[in-house]
Peptidase M23
Amino acid sequence: MIGKSLLYLVGLVGVVGWTGAVNAATAVGPICDQGARVGSTTYYSCNGGSHNALDMSNGTCSEWNHRGMINVSKYYKYYGGCANTCGGSSCNGGAGNYYVVSGGSGWEFRQLHVNSNGSSGSKTCDRCPLGLVGSTGQSTGAHVHADNRQYGTRKTAWYTSVGTTCGSSAYCGNRVGTPTL
Ligand SMILES: [Zn+2]
């Protein structure tokens, strides 16, 4: 009886999965500086607590563009209102100024901690400037945080599947992942 119920549940999840079309996108690094690197992946600073996202930096604050990472035109919804800083704050729940690209079946791709400038705001674009590399929200140093979530749970396959790890290039010409959207 338990086995039969479990089979039914698995079947139901399979059917639900077909209701929203999702596709693998390609994400490149967010900073057009050859020195940009990945500093955190599944764990903060590579060996700290659970993170399940990419943190990328070129060691500067407010000197470089924070660019859209998806390599085709997508709608980036902007959530702003956080003061530009190279330190940290709890603004927007710790996300700081951020963007969300929404896909099917609860999937999202997000880029956090943007220092806003004249480029910031909701828009449809392909790898365009979204603001400056900064440290708005819960962040102790200027960087770009990128994650791929489904119904709010951060997934790791989008970057582990292409071999992105600590020290990988976060240059805008380098593929860092294949997020689901
Ligand atoms: Zn992060």
Observations:
- The longest helix spans residues 2-17.
